[in-house]
Design a protein that fits this description.
558 residues, mainly alpha, Rossmann fold, disordered N terminus, TPR repeat, TPST-like, transferase
Amino acid sequence: MRNRLPPAWAKHLKTQPSVKVAMPKATLPKAQPNASPPRSQADDMLLRQALELQQAKRLPEAEELCLRVLARTPNHPLAYYILGTLGIGYDNEKALRYFARAVAEEPQNPYYHLSLGETYLKVSEFTPAIRHIQQALDLKPDLVEALCALGDAYNEFDKGELALPLFEKALKIDRYHPLARLGLPYALASLGRMDEAAVLLKEAIDRRIALPTAYGALVQTRNFTEEPPELESILAELRDPDLGSEDASALHHAAGKVLNDLGRYKEAMVHYKKGNQAGGHKFDLENYRRWIDAMIETFTPELFASRAAYGNPSDAPVFVVGMPRSGTTLTEQICASHPNVHGAGELGKLRRVANGIGLANRSNTNFAESIATFTPDLTRALAGEHLAYLRERAPDALRIVDKMPHNFELIGLIGILFPNARIIHCRRDAIDNCISCFVLRFNEAHSYSADLQTLGLYYREYDRLMRHWNKVLPGRIFENRYEALIENQEQQSRRLIDYLGLPWDDACLRFFDREGSVNTYSRWQVRQPIYTSSIKRWRNYESEIQSLIESLGDLAET
């Protein structure tokens, strides 16, 4: 099993079970006394084969072998565990169920607790994530992977200062472990300590530890005004004929970032295009259009009127939505600088709720069954659970901000669960927004961004859905224009705070001084005062992006 990358960085990369899951050091660990059923030699042989198939990404065949073992030896913990690994990145709910069964059958196995905790972290369930990762450490205090996972959990929970000693302890145990070597500089960067992060990343590069990821992280710690020696090193790595597609994608994007900073835009775009092609992501646009059609047909004014008294009346939740790279992080930071507002970051809870009721399944365009579940009791229960989840982060805050951008798809669900919630829609110049997505190395969940034409057409679907939400929920959604915020920071910030129903506080003008972790691609930018260089940035690439401009059609304000 290859060493995994820190989740806070690796969540934007293509996820594969063989990369992301902690496996026992012994492939088939010995059974704990009285903790699991007797293992037969035949079971062990099948599970070894399943592990080999998993590593080869032949997941259906691996699953079939595990199910054969369970049919012969019910409740076999390692079979459950391997089945859990097969769900990582594809079906996290399935992974949670199988990891939980493995833990129940063999509660003294630290690796099972660790993987269960890490999967909870993937779905933004921080309390059980921390509990199970801590249990792994109680069972095996020197488990470096668990120390790093707990550090990642604290980073995600906006407690980066608690992450630092965990990574430092991990490095004392194994000074060359990739998770610790990259995890510590990430924690420092999330707290705004970019120079310290850069020093550690350069040390990792010198030792060739997780090299492509380290280069990708290093170039994000600063803006370059003159060519750094790292650029030639990155280009040299790209000349390696044995370079894998994932590593090539990371290095191309790193080279593109440096060249963009230097104003060498055509060269930068060549690398961005090659990086996205190497990632190999494909997006089913027609399927997505059908899903948007179903959303629009389902969430009508009549539906909202009939459910007006459903859900929870709390006005604490605030949802910041929009396309990625539209200013959602900046908006959250401005709001969270107010003493009565807590910025909770990008939370997966709402998506998990939608998945549970069949609303987020893009292969399902008949939402009749989902809507049938919208009873008063269910909506109150779901909203109450969601509110408790938010309150874990900030028990006393008047407003709690969830800035998961793609919640723009689920505004209909928000409107029913929280009729008094604030919804801030961040909108940016369409071409600038798309270019900003294209040049980042997103994971497969953002596969629409890997091709310029597809990206433009996807943006049109996003725009179509947002126009629908504004029509059926008139006056509910505050549109925060990125350009207006850049042009007149104070005026737009005052409008934001007024929309939240709070008195103005001058701290909102100094959002870049706010303490706490920032765990998105914008972590460098939001440590700086407002700057204007991102406005009409697309003109730097105009000759290279005609397919994007054409696919945007009338949304491209040229």
